[in-house]
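Hey, I'm writing a tutorial for new members on how sequence and structure tokens pair up, and I'd like a real worked example in the thread rather than a made-up one. If someone can provide the structure for the chain below, I'll link this post from the tutorial.
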Amino acid sequence: MLDYSLCQQASSTQLWTVVSRTLLFVFSQPLIAVAILVALASLLWGFKRDRPKKQVLSLGLGLLAVYLFTISPLASQLGTRWLVSFLPADVGSQADAIVVLGRGDQQNSIRAEVAGQLWQAQRAPIIFPSGRKDALLMAQLIKQKVSDAVIEGEPCSLTTEENAEFTAALLRPKGVKTIILVTDPPHMKRSLLTFESFGFKVIPYFSPLSDDTGRTKKRFIVAREIIGFWQYKMMGRYSTRPVPPPSVINEEEPALKALKFI
């Protein structure tokens, strides 16, 4: 099995990943989130001047209002509808590979099941899990239903950008052009456009969020993905880019080839 030591330990967007996951945990707990925001607003009492008091109060109340709207059913419904709009429908066509993106323990078992079903339906000859730690776990789950020989992947990526970059580095040189991309609905739009930027033709296939994911957490995931979508757009990550070499995964191993799960 692939050793994590083969992966680069740094990521250009690792800070955003850590911050967003921390916020996801905090703000998916309404009591904790409201307590933090109220505490922020309460700081105004530490100021003696009226003007700073008003500014801090306005900031605290504004953040509270934004949070309450973010976790509201209306915002979640509108955000989800926008995130899945204009995505091509899955018409059952075949592809060169099934690429499965990780999203933590709650989602990995569902995605592994979806990937196995797609392979059994002969939609593609290989299954390619992507994501640090997630890929190895999904590979183990997938191997319970399909042959080891059809599973490849990369357990090095920490972000959606790296999911696409590392997958392209390993699969495009092998002639893989069309992929079935498996991820949850909120994550699909950003993922699809990022993979397309590396030359893939992408067939989106939704894997639902786990039933164990609370309603508030699901709503914050939607908000996070909207922010992530526009962040990627401003960084130019949807523009056409060259296929990176396999060495991009580990600069110290320029001869690194396709990664197989044994």
